[in-house]
Amino acid sequence: MYSATLSTSPSLPTAFAANRSSLPPACIATTSTNKHHRPLSPEKLALLIDKSKTTGQLLQIHAFLIRQGFDDHPILAFKLQRSYASLGRLDYCVELFDRTQNPNVFFYTAIIHGHAFNDLHDQALHFYVRMLTQGVEPNAFTFSAVLKSCPLNAGKAIHSQAIKFGFDSDTYVGTALVDVYSKGGDVMSARHLFEAISERSLVSLTAMITCYSKHGDVDGARLLFDRMIERDVVCWNVMIDGYAQHGRPNEALALFRKMLLGKVKANEVTLVAVLSACGQLGALELGRWVHSYIANNRIQLSCQLGTALVDMYSKCGALEDAHLVFDMIKDKDVVAWNSMIVGYAMHGFTQDALRLFHNMCRTGLQPTDITFIGILSACAHAGSVSEGWRFFHLMKEEHRIQPKIEHYGCMVNLLGRAGHLDEAYELVKNLEIDPDPVLWGTLLGACRLHGNIGLGEEIAEFLVNQNLASSGTYVLLSNMYAAARNWDGVAKVRALMKGSGVQKEPGCSSIEVNNKVHEFLAGDMKHPKSKEIYMMLEEINEWLKAHGYTPQTDIVLHDIGEREKKRSLEVHSERLAIAFGLISTQPGATVKIVKNLRVCPDCHAVTKLISKITGRKIVVRDRSRFHQFVNGSCSCGDYW
Ligand code: ZN
Ligand code: ZN
Fold first, then answer.
1. SS3 633
2. What is the pLDDT of residue 491?
3. How many A from CA of 412 to the centre of ligand 1?
4. Contact 398, 431 (CB under 8 A)
5. What's the pLDDT at 32?
6. What's the whole-number mean pLDDT along residues 139-165?
7. From the CA of 157, how far away is ligand 2's center (Å)?
8. Which domains does the chain have, with CATH numbers?
9. Ligand 2 centroid, distance to 374 Cα (angstroms)
10. Which ligand sits nearest to residue 449's alpha carbon?
């Protein structure tokens, strides 16, 4: 039962007890020299067991115990068992346990703890049940150990037993219960339990904050966090990570700054969360600063930390830096390879992504579903339909990975881009899983690109009827009609959207200038430099006019006059960010923007022109990909 999950080296041999002469030679040599010394007391031996740092040391002491006839000593046997478990030798631990006659609560607690500690939760519960059937009464430590292994339902049962045995008000048991309920999603009960804990330790507070963050109540967590008098790095990490995981990267970074001001030293976990926030915001300068923090503080570049850097650099558009870090990661795991492959794919470097994929497979690592998301989207960027299908089948048949919605998304994108619209539609219609709005959006986008209004209408109608239409659906459909100059269609969509009550998600763009991330909503006047920004926008409009550009007002969904429509396009969030970028960076410097939605066709056309007129490279990361605007054209080839 255990052999599958544990180390494959020989288990504690039965001969170890039955035939003492078959001890490993090292043990005999050590023990024989001890023969001439004064025999050690059990207390001294217990201390030695606690201090053992390797299985080898523990085996030597174990051998000595046997020779001295101490192997039946209950405390020593218990300590041995516990130490084997914590050194990952659960097999030795189990053998010792099996040899113990009438194990008491300490033995049971140690074996339960050992299994829970090694993520063998079913076995931990199994020993707990065995303990109860043997008539051994659990104590507080047993409860806090076994609760680590409990899903919510089992946890509730054990909770009632803790009440029965009178341990529910114990701080450790209470904390473990908060953890069980919060992991199981029962935030209310977790909260009640937390409030009942009389001595709230840092651990229980952290458990509760983790609970709030995990279940989306980041603000609740923050309230609790702010009330804490004493905070260790773990609390800071939970809170910073909570913000980063819930798409609130600005707050994550603000808290990180506060943490550093409070002279708390960041560790690997902090930096991974902070790098994720930088990646989300496209905050390259801060990301670079974190990289130098790692170097200056001699923090070892673990695989996880290296991967976080690769991810940050590629999301911030600095692919070369991503690759430099990637090369420095020793013992790369599949997550590290994936982040580099996805990075290349995101930037449209198909060949590099495929080359990396083959290199990874050569190292013997098994690709995962994420690997194939990278590979398939790389194929989509290159428009290689046959290559895409080949990898899609390779994933399913050779690697036995069931395609997820994201893989279908890549395939629909690939087929749609290449104009194989019917094939793409067939694929979506025959999905074994429910297609999500993003997938439909991709298909609608392809219909717009290829001007296939018939199919576009059919899909949109289906989405509206099924209540699946998002604001994006209406925007895409309206753009499609507009591109075909079908004004009745545009008006129809406008009316439909009004009636549906679907709200358009507000566009938001950010740009990092001088280590600070500036965010803009459409029509935003809140920025301190608003006056200059709007003056720059006026100037841009003059340039555009001079280049004969007419705004695509027909894509505006609001029912307003022509002038207002023009105005509403001019103040789209990415324009504000670009204008701010132009006035606040050196001439010739690249302007990098991150946008939460797809870039609209008008902004796309305008940004191309701005790149030509100013001679600046403009990089926009929108919801679907990176756009690199250089000298009037975009790397996406006008397909996004
Ligand atoms: Zn726009
Ligand atoms: Zn583009």
1. strand
2. 81
3. 24
4. no
5. 39
6. 87
7. 56
8. 231-331 (1.25.40), 404-500 (1.25.40), 508-634 (no CATH)
9. 19
10. 2
